[in-house]
Structure formats: C-alpha cells, structure tokens
Amino acid sequence: MSQHEIRNIAFVGQTGTGKTSLVERLLFESHAINNLGHVEDGDTITDFDDQSIHYQHSVEATPVTLSWHNHQMNFIDTPGQAELLGRTLSIFPAVETSALVLDAGSSINQVSERLFQFAKDQKKCQMVIINKIDQHPDKLLALLEEIEQRFGAQCLPINLPSQKPAEVIDCYFEPNPEQTTLFSGVDEAHELLVDQVVEMDESLMELYLEQGSELTPEQLHDPFEKALRTGHVVPVCFVSSDTGAGCELLLRTLAEIMPMPDEGNPPMLEKNGQQVAIDCDKRDHTVAHVYKVNVDPYMGKLAMYVFSRVKLPRVVSYSLVTAVKRLKLVTYITCRARNVMRSPLLKRVICAYW
Ligand SMILES: Nc1nc2c(ncn2[C@@H]2O[C@H](COP(=O)(O)OP(=O)(O)O)[C@@H](O)[C@H]2O)c(=O)[nH]1
Ligand SMILES: [Mg+2]
User: Which residues form the Tr-type G domain (predicted)?
Assistant: First the structure.
C-alpha cells in the first residue's frame, strides 16, 4: 500500500459528543468488527481500558485502523474532558486531518473552540462532524449557523440531513437536486462548496464560469486539497452514530476528499538548526515521531509512532527524530480493532514495544 491510500484522522471534541460511538460505528460499517459496541456497555473498541469503562468516557487517545475501498484509515479517538485535553493535543503531529465532532443538541463550547483553533494553528486540514442527528433534527440548522458564526463561512456542508430521519443526502459527489433535505436545496449547498473550492484555481475558475457547476469531483480534487491545507474550506458532515446515517458518506469523504500524508501540511523537522521538510516518498533513512508513550500492565512500555518515511521493514534499531534516546524496535503492531498485525508501512500509526 502506498501513502496515497492512507488517511490519518483524529476525532476530537467535547466529551459526550459521540466520538467513541462514531469510531465504533465506522469500524462496524467497514466490517473491521462484527459486533457494534456501546459506551454504556463498556464494550467499544477504543474505550477498552478499565478507567474509560468505569467513567464511560475516553481517558486515553486510542488509535484504530480500518480498511475501506482500498484505503487504510488510521483513526485516533481522543478524550474530550477539559482536564484531559493535553492527551488530545499531543497526538496532532500523528494526523493530517482533525475532525471536530459536535453534538447536534448542544451549542459550541470552549473546548470545541479551543480544539478548532489548535488544529488551525497546527495547520491541520479540518472538518466538522455534526453527530446525533437522530436525536435533535430540529436543532441542526441553528447549529450549522452557529458553526458559521464561530468558525467562519468556510465551514460548508458536504451533505445534509434528509427529511427521513435515518438518511443523509450527498451534496458533493453525486448531488441529486430532486432530493429534499431538512433545510436547504442540494443544488444550493453544492454550488456554495464548489464556489469556495474553485477560488483556489484560476484556470478552473474560468472553466467553471463557462461550464456552470458541472465540474467533476476529479477536476476539483487538487483545488479541494489546497483549500483544505489553507483552511479555505472546512467540510461539514451530518451523521448519527446511533442509526449509522451519514456514516458511509463520511467514510467516502475521508477517503476521497481528506488528504493523504503528503497532501496535508506535514510538520517541518529540524536538522542542524535548519527547518527541513520530509519527502515521504523518498527511500531514505526512517523518520518517525513518537506521539504517545503508554505503560501497559501486560506489555510494558508501548510507544506509538507515526512514520513519515520508512526505509525498510526489518531493521530493529531506529534513530527517532523526536526521541531523546535510541529506541529498540522489537516488533510493530498496527491497531486494527483488537487484532495485532505486523506491518511497518509508510505513515501508519504504529505501536512498538521496547
Ligand atoms: N441518540 C444518539 N446518541 C448518541 C449518538 N452518538 C453517541 N451517542 C450517545 O452519547 C453518549 C456519549 O457518547 P460517546 O461516544 O462516549 O462520546 P465521546 O465522549 O465524544 O466519545 C453515549 O451515551 C452514546 O450512546 C448518536 O448519534 N445518537
Ligand atoms: Mg470517547
């Protein structure tokens, strides 16, 4: 698998907005797991530790991996309690996309604002996910307006809730103007998004003016990436992790719209006092970032890395750019639901024991 198929995404947001349930639903929809766990039952994949089960909210940032239509998605479910935010902020170097999850029934609070601003400062591509649309269909429009007000007019829906409670309507990939949404025309939403994206590309803009809104997602791909990188567009998705509404479209958006490692804004590293960028495709010595270290009661010390560049799979000793000491990499595992899988691939979120 090349880095073109890899997506690294952090699900962040205030506690209780449904991040853990959403990650669980996405694992289920993509057939990574066969049983859908629930936070209340203490059987979700990412809230697996005793404390998270006891308190019924995530205490650690937990990575999982799933496959979807030839894409490998590395998700990190994060804690949203204000006092645990340090654990969330520290994983940002491991991802290109920050997905801010909001609860359809609540207004935007300080934690969400802080996370949005932090992701912006870190030059992450961003999206906003409005969850629990099954519970609060009457509050969705007001929340969308609030998002625009608090985060800016570049936050534009890529899909909209349907009048049927368990459905979400695509406004980007294959928009069908016949479909009726809860509050705005599909055409209107599509046009707003395309208008925003084509501003990134003058020649496409000319074509667009001649061609109307008939630009294909393929034509829009590059300007869309640029718009995401520069914060010129922030897609908004509606979902319900409870009913699964919008989850398929969310996976499609993550795969086809959100950036692969090279398309995001990879953090610059320092070499001999100079800022250097990393060419992920180059076969040079391995560069990795330890974004989290755990002490696991069964496994011992567990470091979680994100690799920016991997020279070769079987070497056991790596000099890690951000680690103070040399770590001995004994084995790799990727967090694929609860299975352990050996595979050192480029830009995967990877754990290692030592
Ligand atoms: N009705 C409804 N409840 C949800 C939805 N998503 C999550 N919940 C509930 O919201 C609560 C908090 O969910 P959780 O996933 O722990 O939120 P987190 O703290 O952001 O990870 C739990 O009781 C979930 O069952 C949803 O889409 N609809
Ligand atoms: Mg959680």
Answer: 4-262
